[in-house]
Amino acid sequence: MKNKLMRTTALVGSMVVLGAGASVAQTTVTGSLDLSYRAVGSSTGANSDSVSSFRGFGKESQINIANKGKLNNGLDYAAGFSLEFDGNDLQGSGTQTSTMQGIHGEGVYLNLIDGNTTYHVGADWIQNPDSHGLINPVGVGYMTSFGNAVVAAGTAKQGIYPTISNSPYQAYGFGVVQKTGLGNFSVSYVPSPQDAVAGPDIGNNQSIANYEGTAETAIELGFVGDLGIKGLTVQAFYNERSAPDQNTTGTNPTGKVKGQTLTAAYNFGQVTIAGDMRKTEGGAKAVATTGVDEEIKGKALSLTYAATNNLSVGVVYGKAESNLTTKPLNEKIKIAAIGYNLGPVALNAEYTDTANVGGLSGSDAKELIVKASTKF
Protein backbone atom coordinates (compact mmCIF):
# COMPACT_ATOMS: atom_id res chain seq x y z
CA MET A 1 0.00 0.00 0.00
CA LYS A 2 2.87 2.34 0.85
CA ASN A 3 4.51 1.75 -2.54
CA LYS A 4 1.22 2.32 -4.31
CA LEU A 5 0.74 5.59 -2.42
CA MET A 6 4.24 6.75 -3.37
CA ARG A 7 3.61 6.05 -7.04
CA THR A 8 0.31 7.91 -6.92
CA THR A 9 1.91 10.89 -5.21
CA ALA A 10 4.62 11.02 -7.86
CA LEU A 11 2.03 11.04 -10.62
CA VAL A 12 0.07 13.82 -8.96
CA GLY A 13 3.28 15.80 -8.56
CA SER A 14 4.04 15.48 -12.24
CA MET A 15 0.64 16.93 -13.07
CA VAL A 16 1.25 19.95 -10.88
CA VAL A 17 4.34 20.78 -12.94
CA LEU A 18 2.04 21.36 -15.92
CA GLY A 19 0.99 24.65 -14.33
CA ALA A 20 -2.10 26.18 -12.79
CA GLY A 21 -3.76 26.62 -16.20
CA ALA A 22 -3.94 22.89 -16.83
CA SER A 23 -7.19 21.09 -16.11
CA VAL A 24 -7.35 18.00 -13.92
CA ALA A 25 -5.79 15.04 -15.75
CA GLN A 26 -5.60 11.32 -15.21
CA THR A 27 -2.34 9.41 -15.66
CA THR A 28 -2.13 5.62 -15.87
CA VAL A 29 0.77 3.19 -16.11
CA THR A 30 0.11 -0.26 -17.56
CA GLY A 31 2.23 -3.03 -19.00
CA SER A 32 2.34 -6.44 -20.60
CA LEU A 33 4.63 -9.46 -20.67
CA ASP A 34 4.76 -12.32 -23.19
CA LEU A 35 7.00 -15.37 -22.81
CA SER A 36 7.13 -18.07 -25.44
CA TYR A 37 8.73 -21.41 -26.26
CA ARG A 38 9.31 -22.14 -29.93
CA ALA A 39 10.48 -25.19 -31.88
CA VAL A 40 11.04 -24.94 -35.65
CA GLY A 41 11.98 -27.49 -38.25
CA SER A 42 12.61 -26.77 -41.95
CA SER A 43 13.36 -28.71 -45.08
CA THR A 44 16.97 -29.25 -46.11
CA GLY A 45 16.57 -29.07 -49.89
CA ALA A 46 18.28 -26.69 -52.32
CA ASN A 47 15.99 -23.79 -51.38
CA SER A 48 16.23 -24.18 -47.62
CA ASP A 49 18.62 -22.66 -45.13
CA SER A 50 21.61 -24.57 -43.78
CA VAL A 51 20.01 -24.49 -40.33
CA SER A 52 17.21 -27.06 -40.47
CA SER A 53 15.86 -26.75 -36.92
CA PHE A 54 16.12 -24.76 -33.71
CA ARG A 55 14.30 -24.20 -30.43
CA GLY A 56 14.32 -21.75 -27.56
CA PHE A 57 12.52 -19.02 -25.63
CA GLY A 58 11.28 -15.61 -26.71
CA LYS A 59 10.18 -12.57 -24.73
CA GLU A 60 8.33 -9.30 -25.30
CA SER A 61 7.55 -6.75 -22.61
CA GLN A 62 6.06 -3.28 -22.74
CA ILE A 63 5.37 -0.36 -20.41
CA ASN A 64 2.61 2.10 -21.36
CA ILE A 65 2.26 5.60 -19.91
CA ALA A 66 -0.97 7.45 -20.75
CA ASN A 67 -2.52 10.75 -19.73
CA LYS A 68 -5.92 12.19 -20.53
CA GLY A 69 -8.08 15.10 -19.47
CA LYS A 70 -9.58 18.39 -20.66
CA LEU A 71 -8.00 21.49 -22.14
CA ASN A 72 -8.88 24.97 -20.89
CA ASN A 73 -10.93 25.50 -24.08
CA GLY A 74 -13.19 22.53 -23.31
CA LEU A 75 -11.67 20.00 -25.73
CA ASP A 76 -10.50 16.60 -24.51
CA TYR A 77 -6.94 15.42 -24.98
CA ALA A 78 -5.01 12.18 -24.67
CA ALA A 79 -1.27 11.61 -24.77
CA GLY A 80 1.10 8.78 -24.12
CA PHE A 81 4.01 6.60 -25.15
CA SER A 82 5.24 3.07 -24.65
CA LEU A 83 8.61 1.47 -24.04
CA GLU A 84 9.01 -1.94 -25.64
CA PHE A 85 11.73 -4.39 -24.67
CA ASP A 86 11.96 -7.53 -26.78
CA GLY A 87 14.21 -10.47 -26.08
CA ASN A 88 17.04 -9.57 -28.46
CA ASP A 89 17.13 -5.79 -27.95
CA LEU A 90 20.68 -4.39 -28.13
CA GLN A 91 22.11 -7.73 -29.20
CA GLY A 92 24.77 -7.85 -31.89
CA SER A 93 27.01 -5.19 -33.38
CA GLY A 94 25.52 -2.44 -35.51
CA THR A 95 21.98 -2.92 -34.24
CA GLN A 96 21.96 -0.54 -31.29
CA THR A 97 20.69 2.54 -33.12
CA SER A 98 17.73 0.90 -34.85
CA THR A 99 16.84 -1.11 -31.76
CA MET A 100 16.80 1.94 -29.49
CA GLN A 101 14.57 3.74 -31.98
CA GLY A 102 12.14 0.85 -31.78
CA ILE A 103 12.18 0.87 -27.98
CA HIS A 104 10.99 4.47 -27.69
CA GLY A 105 8.99 4.68 -30.93
CA GLU A 106 6.16 2.49 -29.70
CA GLY A 107 2.64 3.93 -29.33
CA VAL A 108 3.56 7.62 -29.26
CA TYR A 109 0.58 10.00 -29.48
CA LEU A 110 -0.70 13.45 -28.61
CA ASN A 111 -4.38 13.72 -29.52
CA LEU A 112 -6.90 16.53 -29.39
CA ILE A 113 -10.49 15.28 -29.24
CA ASP A 114 -13.53 17.22 -30.35
CA GLY A 115 -16.56 15.00 -29.80
CA ASN A 116 -16.31 12.16 -32.35
CA THR A 117 -13.28 13.64 -34.11
CA THR A 118 -9.70 12.97 -32.98
CA TYR A 119 -6.73 14.95 -34.31
CA HIS A 120 -3.54 12.95 -33.90
CA VAL A 121 0.21 13.42 -34.12
CA GLY A 122 2.67 10.62 -33.28
CA ALA A 123 3.75 7.15 -34.36
CA ASP A 124 2.40 3.60 -34.02
CA TRP A 125 -0.95 4.69 -32.59
CA ILE A 126 -3.48 5.38 -35.36
CA GLN A 127 -5.61 2.44 -36.55
CA ASN A 128 -3.76 0.32 -39.10
CA PRO A 129 -3.80 -2.98 -41.04
CA ASP A 130 -0.93 -4.56 -39.09
CA SER A 131 -3.11 -7.05 -37.28
CA HIS A 132 -4.12 -10.63 -37.82
CA GLY A 133 -6.28 -10.68 -34.72
CA LEU A 134 -9.36 -11.12 -36.91
CA ILE A 135 -8.05 -13.90 -39.15
CA ASN A 136 -6.04 -15.70 -36.45
CA PRO A 137 -7.63 -14.75 -33.09
CA VAL A 138 -6.55 -17.86 -31.16
CA GLY A 139 -2.99 -18.07 -32.48
CA VAL A 140 0.14 -16.29 -31.36
CA GLY A 141 1.36 -14.53 -34.50
CA TYR A 142 0.84 -13.32 -38.02
CA MET A 143 -0.23 -15.35 -41.02
CA THR A 144 3.38 -15.54 -42.17
CA SER A 145 5.02 -18.57 -40.61
CA PHE A 146 7.47 -17.94 -37.79
CA GLY A 147 9.46 -20.72 -39.40
CA ASN A 148 10.38 -18.35 -42.20
CA ALA A 149 13.05 -16.97 -39.88
CA VAL A 150 15.02 -20.15 -40.57
CA VAL A 151 16.25 -18.56 -43.81
CA ALA A 152 18.41 -15.47 -44.06
CA ALA A 153 16.65 -12.09 -43.89
CA GLY A 154 16.51 -10.20 -47.16
CA THR A 155 16.61 -13.23 -49.44
CA ALA A 156 13.88 -14.47 -51.76
CA LYS A 157 13.27 -17.38 -49.38
CA GLN A 158 11.49 -15.23 -46.81
CA GLY A 159 7.75 -15.65 -46.35
CA ILE A 160 5.83 -13.41 -48.75
CA TYR A 161 2.37 -13.18 -47.17
CA PRO A 162 1.85 -9.38 -46.82
CA THR A 163 1.54 -8.64 -43.11
CA ILE A 164 1.30 -4.83 -42.93
CA SER A 165 0.57 -4.20 -46.63
CA ASN A 166 3.16 -1.37 -46.89
CA SER A 167 1.41 0.60 -44.14
CA PRO A 168 3.36 3.67 -42.95
CA TYR A 169 1.67 3.73 -39.52
CA GLN A 170 4.86 3.04 -37.55
CA ALA A 171 6.42 6.31 -38.77
CA TYR A 172 5.74 9.71 -37.23
CA GLY A 173 2.95 11.68 -38.90
CA PHE A 174 -0.40 13.44 -38.63
CA GLY A 175 -3.85 11.86 -38.66
CA VAL A 176 -7.57 12.30 -38.14
CA VAL A 177 -9.97 9.64 -36.85
CA GLN A 178 -13.72 10.16 -37.26
CA LYS A 179 -16.12 8.04 -35.23
CA THR A 180 -19.46 7.24 -36.91
CA GLY A 181 -22.35 4.86 -36.38
CA LEU A 182 -20.77 2.44 -38.88
CA GLY A 183 -17.25 2.52 -37.47
CA ASN A 184 -14.12 4.64 -37.35
CA PHE A 185 -12.71 6.27 -40.48
CA SER A 186 -9.10 7.47 -40.46
CA VAL A 187 -6.61 9.28 -42.66
CA SER A 188 -2.90 9.57 -41.87
CA TYR A 189 -0.19 11.67 -43.52
CA VAL A 190 3.47 10.76 -43.10
CA PRO A 191 5.86 13.33 -44.59
CA SER A 192 8.98 11.12 -44.54
CA PRO A 193 8.28 7.50 -43.60
CA GLN A 194 10.90 6.09 -41.26
CA ASP A 195 9.59 3.42 -38.91
CA ALA A 196 9.56 4.56 -35.25
CA VAL A 197 12.07 7.33 -36.02
CA ALA A 198 11.82 11.00 -35.09
CA GLY A 199 14.42 13.76 -35.26
CA PRO A 200 17.10 13.82 -32.53
CA ASP A 201 15.10 16.27 -30.42
CA ILE A 202 12.82 19.27 -30.91
CA GLY A 203 14.98 20.82 -33.59
CA ASN A 204 18.48 21.94 -32.71
CA ASN A 205 20.07 19.55 -35.19
CA GLN A 206 19.98 20.67 -38.82
CA SER A 207 21.21 17.44 -40.43
CA ILE A 208 18.81 16.32 -43.16
CA ALA A 209 19.71 12.69 -42.54
CA ASN A 210 18.34 12.93 -39.00
CA TYR A 211 14.89 13.85 -40.25
CA GLU A 212 14.32 12.48 -43.74
CA GLY A 213 14.50 8.97 -45.08
CA THR A 214 14.65 8.02 -48.73
CA ALA A 215 10.95 7.09 -48.77
CA GLU A 216 8.54 9.69 -50.10
CA THR A 217 5.38 11.12 -48.50
CA ALA A 218 2.80 8.46 -47.62
CA ILE A 219 -0.97 8.63 -47.12
CA GLU A 220 -3.17 5.89 -45.65
CA LEU A 221 -6.98 5.71 -45.56
CA GLY A 222 -8.61 3.29 -43.15
CA PHE A 223 -11.88 1.98 -41.74
CA VAL A 224 -12.57 -0.27 -38.75
CA GLY A 225 -16.15 -1.00 -37.70
CA ASP A 226 -19.21 -3.23 -37.81
CA LEU A 227 -21.17 -1.39 -40.54
CA GLY A 228 -24.12 -1.43 -38.15
CA ILE A 229 -24.32 -5.25 -38.15
CA LYS A 230 -24.03 -7.00 -34.79
CA GLY A 231 -21.25 -9.58 -34.72
CA LEU A 232 -19.44 -8.19 -37.79
CA THR A 233 -16.01 -6.55 -37.76
CA VAL A 234 -14.48 -5.09 -40.91
CA GLN A 235 -11.02 -3.63 -41.53
CA ALA A 236 -10.33 -1.86 -44.85
CA PHE A 237 -7.14 0.09 -45.64
CA TYR A 238 -5.41 1.67 -48.63
CA ASN A 239 -2.02 3.37 -48.64
CA GLU A 240 0.19 4.91 -51.28
CA ARG A 241 3.49 6.72 -51.63
CA SER A 242 5.66 7.73 -54.56
CA ALA A 243 8.90 5.98 -55.40
CA PRO A 244 11.72 5.87 -54.42
CA ASP A 245 11.29 3.71 -51.35
CA GLN A 246 13.94 3.06 -48.71
CA ASN A 247 13.61 -0.73 -48.95
CA THR A 248 14.12 -1.27 -52.70
CA THR A 249 17.08 -2.97 -54.31
CA GLY A 250 18.89 -1.85 -57.41
CA THR A 251 17.57 1.26 -59.11
CA ASN A 252 14.32 2.91 -58.08
CA PRO A 253 11.15 0.94 -58.80
CA THR A 254 8.64 2.15 -61.34
CA GLY A 255 5.36 3.72 -60.30
CA LYS A 256 4.11 4.03 -56.72
CA VAL A 257 4.39 1.91 -53.60
CA LYS A 258 0.89 0.79 -52.61
CA GLY A 259 -0.93 -1.45 -50.16
CA GLN A 260 -4.50 -2.70 -49.77
CA THR A 261 -6.21 -4.70 -47.03
CA LEU A 262 -9.74 -6.02 -46.59
CA THR A 263 -10.47 -8.24 -43.59
CA ALA A 264 -13.83 -9.26 -42.17
CA ALA A 265 -14.90 -11.48 -39.27
CA TYR A 266 -18.42 -12.51 -38.29
CA ASN A 267 -19.32 -14.01 -34.93
CA PHE A 268 -22.49 -15.97 -34.30
CA GLY A 269 -22.70 -17.69 -30.97
CA GLN A 270 -19.64 -19.84 -30.34
CA VAL A 271 -18.41 -19.71 -33.95
CA THR A 272 -16.43 -17.00 -35.76
CA ILE A 273 -15.58 -17.09 -39.46
CA ALA A 274 -13.13 -14.66 -41.06
CA GLY A 275 -11.54 -13.82 -44.39
CA ASP A 276 -8.46 -11.77 -45.25
CA MET A 277 -7.30 -10.28 -48.58
CA ARG A 278 -4.09 -8.26 -48.89
CA LYS A 279 -2.10 -6.81 -51.75
CA THR A 280 1.16 -4.91 -52.05
CA GLU A 281 2.80 -3.25 -55.04
CA GLY A 282 6.47 -2.24 -54.95
CA GLY A 283 8.13 -1.54 -51.63
CA ALA A 284 10.37 -3.89 -49.72
CA LYS A 285 10.35 -6.70 -52.26
CA ALA A 286 10.42 -4.69 -55.49
CA VAL A 287 12.97 -6.01 -57.99
CA ALA A 288 13.68 -2.81 -59.85
CA THR A 289 16.59 -4.12 -61.90
CA THR A 290 14.14 -6.15 -63.99
CA GLY A 291 11.92 -3.14 -64.60
CA VAL A 292 9.06 -4.84 -62.76
CA ASP A 293 7.66 -3.91 -59.34
CA GLU A 294 6.65 -6.96 -57.40
CA GLU A 295 2.95 -7.43 -56.73
CA ILE A 296 2.06 -9.77 -53.89
CA LYS A 297 -1.44 -11.04 -53.15
CA GLY A 298 -2.42 -12.84 -49.96
CA LYS A 299 -5.70 -14.55 -49.12
CA ALA A 300 -6.76 -16.43 -45.99
CA LEU A 301 -9.81 -18.02 -44.34
CA SER A 302 -10.30 -19.06 -40.72
CA LEU A 303 -12.78 -20.81 -38.43
CA THR A 304 -12.74 -20.33 -34.65
CA TYR A 305 -14.82 -22.21 -32.08
CA ALA A 306 -15.25 -21.13 -28.45
CA ALA A 307 -15.73 -24.49 -26.74
CA THR A 308 -16.17 -22.88 -23.30
CA ASN A 309 -15.88 -19.42 -21.79
CA ASN A 310 -12.14 -20.04 -21.37
CA LEU A 311 -11.18 -22.48 -24.14
CA SER A 312 -11.07 -21.70 -27.88
CA VAL A 313 -9.68 -23.54 -30.89
CA GLY A 314 -9.11 -22.33 -34.43
CA VAL A 315 -7.83 -23.29 -37.88
CA VAL A 316 -6.47 -20.99 -40.60
CA TYR A 317 -5.55 -21.56 -44.23
CA GLY A 318 -3.82 -18.93 -46.33
CA LYS A 319 -1.74 -18.55 -49.45
CA ALA A 320 0.30 -15.83 -51.10
CA GLU A 321 1.57 -15.39 -54.64
CA SER A 322 4.00 -13.06 -56.40
CA ASN A 323 4.13 -11.91 -60.03
CA LEU A 324 7.89 -12.52 -60.27
CA THR A 325 9.23 -15.58 -62.05
CA THR A 326 11.86 -15.98 -59.32
CA LYS A 327 9.02 -17.00 -56.97
CA PRO A 328 6.90 -19.26 -59.17
CA LEU A 329 4.89 -21.19 -56.56
CA ASN A 330 2.11 -20.25 -54.16
CA GLU A 331 3.20 -20.01 -50.54
CA LYS A 332 0.69 -22.03 -48.51
CA ILE A 333 0.17 -21.64 -44.76
CA LYS A 334 -1.85 -23.95 -42.50
CA ILE A 335 -2.36 -23.14 -38.82
CA ALA A 336 -4.02 -25.03 -35.95
CA ALA A 337 -4.31 -23.05 -32.70
CA ILE A 338 -5.66 -23.37 -29.18
CA GLY A 339 -6.09 -20.77 -26.45
CA TYR A 340 -6.96 -21.03 -22.77
CA ASN A 341 -7.84 -18.13 -20.47
CA LEU A 342 -6.66 -18.35 -16.85
CA GLY A 343 -7.92 -14.91 -15.87
CA PRO A 344 -4.84 -12.72 -15.42
CA VAL A 345 -2.78 -15.13 -17.57
CA ALA A 346 -3.59 -16.39 -21.07
CA LEU A 347 -2.04 -19.45 -22.73
CA ASN A 348 -1.89 -19.86 -26.51
CA ALA A 349 -0.36 -22.56 -28.68
CA GLU A 350 -0.04 -22.73 -32.44
CA TYR A 351 1.20 -25.32 -34.95
CA THR A 352 2.10 -23.85 -38.35
CA ASP A 353 2.89 -25.79 -41.52
CA THR A 354 4.18 -23.63 -44.40
CA ALA A 355 4.85 -25.01 -47.88
CA ASN A 356 6.89 -23.20 -50.55
CA VAL A 357 8.21 -20.53 -48.19
CA GLY A 358 8.91 -17.46 -50.31
CA GLY A 359 7.28 -19.14 -53.31
CA LEU A 360 10.12 -21.64 -53.73
CA SER A 361 9.89 -25.40 -54.09
CA GLY A 362 11.56 -27.38 -51.31
CA SER A 363 11.51 -24.44 -48.89
CA ASP A 364 9.12 -25.72 -46.23
CA ALA A 365 8.84 -25.12 -42.48
CA LYS A 366 6.95 -26.55 -39.53
CA GLU A 367 6.67 -24.89 -36.15
CA LEU A 368 5.20 -25.23 -32.68
CA ILE A 369 5.05 -22.17 -30.45
CA VAL A 370 3.51 -21.82 -26.98
CA LYS A 371 3.02 -18.40 -25.38
CA ALA A 372 2.07 -17.24 -21.89
CA SER A 373 0.79 -13.64 -21.60
CA THR A 374 -0.22 -11.30 -18.82
CA LYS A 375 -1.17 -7.62 -18.53
CA PHE A 376 -0.94 -5.33 -15.52
Write out key terms for the chains shown.
single chain, about 375 residues, mainly beta, Porin, 16-stranded antiparallel β-barrel, 16 strands
The dominant shape is globular
What's the number of structural domains? 1
- Summarize the main sheet: 16 strands, antiparallel, barrel
Query: What percentage of residues falls in helices of 4 or more residues?
Result: under 10%
As residue ranges, the low-confidence spans are 1-22, 92-97, 147-156, 245-252
CATH class: Mainly Beta
Distance between the termini: 16 Å
Report the structural category: mainly beta
CATH hierarchy: architecture: Beta Barrel
* Radius of gyration based on Cα positions: 22 Å
Strand order of the largest sheet: 1-2-3-4-5-6-7-8-9-10-11-12-13-14-15-16
Number of strands: 16
- What is the count of helical runs? 2
Quaternary organisation:
single chain
- Give helix and strand order, one letter per element, not per position: HEEEHEEEEEEEEEEEEE
CATH topology: Porin
Averaged pLDDT, please? 79
Which homologous superfamily in CATH is the superfamily?
Porin
Strand fraction: over 45%
